[in-house]
Amino acid sequence: MISSVRGQVLSIGLDHAVVEVGGVGFAVQATPTTLAGLRRGEEASLATALVVREDSLTLFGFTDADARQLFGLLLSVSGIGPKLALATLAVLEPDKLRAALAEGNTAMLTQVPGIGRKGAERLIIELRDKVGALVTPGAVPASAGPDAELVRTQVTEALLGLGFPAKQAEQAVDAVLADTAGAETSVVLRRALTSLGRKR
After folding, report:
1. Where is this region: Domain III (predicted)?
2. Which of 33, 58, 70, 155 is found 20 to 30 A from 182 (Cα to Cα)?
3. Do 199 and 193 meet the contact criterion of CB atoms below 8 Å apart?
């Protein structure tokens, strides 16, 4: 099991980054939020989970061990594969996901593409009692909303890492922030990428 990687970020794609470890480049699948925190040419450290299939070995990366544990729990549910588990963490931050499972909030869980009402109910039944064990004592509650300037900086740098020109990236991010004040990094990044994709 490869539980973590640390090394220079060689490249950043839409759904993965390549991290060089000991001369070997590892392609690591990750959420937009995780990728937004990486910088090409700089060192990165990611908690990872290796998913083994008959025809593939896929490495998934996370900002911390907590997100990796949630990923593992999601995989333990029937019908949830690694891509859907990663999509769940992309749409719902770990704290929100944990709260949705603990409170039985199917509406929040069905926001994830690929998870319907029955799938959400199955997640709640199987994981409600397990997520409580992952809550760290004295955890600081999430703030009311993300800092707009920090989000702007993170998303702009992520777009630069993906190869977009600085001016084009800044304009796309500013346009998204103007429409979605208080949005989280992952939401802004997705919408900015959609906007830039239409212009290409």
Report:
1. 144-200
2. 70
3. no
